[in-house]
Amino acid sequence: MEVIDGIGLLLTLHGHRPYDGHRRESVTELQHALQCAQLAEWSQVGHALVAAALLHDIGHFAAAAIGDDVDDEHERRAAELLNGLFPAAVIEPVRLHVQAKRYLVATDASYLAGLSSASVHSLALQGGAMSAEECRRFEAMPHNEDALVLRRWDDSAKVRGRQTPPLAYYLPLLREIQSDGESARPRTVIGSLDA
Ligand SMILES: [Fe+2]
Description:
Layout: H1 3-14, H2 29-42, H3 47-55, H4 74-82, H5 88-107, H6 117-125, H7 132-139, H8 144-156, H9 167-177, H10 187-191
Helix pairs in contact: 1-9, 2-3, 2-8, 3-5, 3-9, 4-5, 5-7, 5-8
The structure holds fe (ii) ion.
Fe (ii) ion binds next to loops.
């Protein structure tokens, strides 16, 4: 199976789950991913950031479901899953999108009030607001600004009934930016289908 087809299958097989599990946001995981990618496209950013928006929560599917009161570390799982398949411009915003939430809570007084209850719940599990030192370290990280932009789309991509292009619309974009190294580890994504 070609690796982008594997990613598409992963999103399709698991995408019916309600976003944020038991807390039940108003959209499914796949609807959330597609809305996030659509917001990226509407912002006219590069294809790498559109791909990051589409794939940012794929780590939710990379392991067996765990409890609602445990940090699933899905951003780390996603980065591991995508490593070698896509360039850093895709992987790093995905890896940093949870840290971006912690940064925004620490630096934007209005940000916390706009978060969904599920995001507030997970914030506590993920470490809460960043300290001043953590903020400084985050600001020095490559791709941190893309992670902040992605985070804003993430928070807005939960609108029940919003129409988006289908997943198939984005697969050619993923193929276009796929790393040359993908052939070295095409089984990684496909193996995750068992998770
Ligand atoms: Fe998300």
